Amino acid sequence: GKAGKFMTKKIILDCDPGHDDALAMMLAVASPKIELLAVTTSAGNQTPDKTLNNAMRMLKLLGREDIPIAGGNRTPLVKPLETAGEVHGESGLDGYPLPEPDFQPVDLTAIELIAKMLNESSTPVTLVVTGPMTNAALFLRVYPELAKAKIDQIVYMGGAMGLGNWQPSVEFNIFVDPEAAKIVMNFGIPLVMAPLNVTHQAQILKPEIEALKQIKNPVGQAFYGLLSFFERYHENPKWGFQGAPLHDPCTIAWLIEPEMFQTEKMNVDVETTGELTRGETVCDYYQLTSKPQNTEVMLGINRQRFIEMIMEALHSFD
Ligand code: BDR
Ligand code: CA
Predict the structure, then answer these.
(1) Is 188 left (phi over 0), alpha (psi -120 to 50) or beta?
(2) Does the annotation mark 247 as catalytic?
(3) Range list of H helices, 164-236
(4) In whole angstroms, what is the distance from residue 276 CA to residue 45 CA?
(5) Ligand 1, residues at Cβ distance < 6 Å
(6) Distance from the CA of 173 to the center of ligand 2, in angstroms?
(7) pTM of the prediction?
(8) CA 278 / ligand 2 centre spacing (Å)
(9) Strand pairing class (203-205; 243-245)
(10) pLDDT tens by residue, 106-143
(11) Which end of the chain has fewer CB atoms at under 10 Å, N or C?
């Protein structure tokens, strides 16, 4: 049903698809509570040309070629680019032959497109970041007044409280561009964080992936192939997973149904100089500093409900 126009949340999705980024985009497109104003892409899971092409292939699959899309940074702010081919494959979105896009990105850079959408919106917009924060940081540095006036919150997947998935205490998105993350976290716009602590609970189990096979529409079929591929990397028993952690969709699920999550407010900052910890998110859970509680951190999720939401969204393309 229609949630009513006043209830819809306007968002811009800055992503690096990526299997879980693609699923986050699908959730956003499917939800009547979300209006996806634009998509911008970052270099991360794969090189910038590949992530842009993947995001366009997803928009085509979802039948939303009308949503403006622009490519962003080609490298992180300081570090050389490192990608995650072993997780997401050579294309960045291996596992299903997606349709090639028959449309063009807008003739703007990512940060120019973000600025255009914010200027055109009379109401605040949420920036959702599911890749490295390079574009977000550049945007805040180039358009600080516009950002303060028009972005109500930045909801991101990244970091962890005491965990890592790329280095012992470093999560991939922050690992790729820690300096960008530091700019974003210290800018002053309220933040909502989906760290590994919650995304590792947000697993789609193997039998649930198998069940996707029964969703006969093209979006369901595509995600059956994509998630079957994505799951393989996570089968290594060292992780202790029973399926695949759906990191990035936690951001969109939180916007649609925040009751699904347990959260805590705290200061979160980034280590950028540590010998062993460059890119570690430092989460002041016990309020040991007087730094502002800049971040609402997701720590728990109703996994069952999360998977139901994903299934319903996939069926909405019937
Ligand atoms: C994050 O890294 C990427 O590989 C995923 O898309 C997700 O955004 C998880 O650490
Ligand atoms: Ca991502």
Answers:
(1) left
(2) yes
(3) 172-176, 178-185, 196-199, 206-211, 218-233
(4) 22
(5) 18, 20-21, 45, 84, 87, 130-131, 157, 165, 171-173, 247-248
(6) 7
(7) 0.98
(8) 19
(9) antiparallel
(10) 999 999 999 999 999 999 999 999 999 999 999 999 99
(11) N
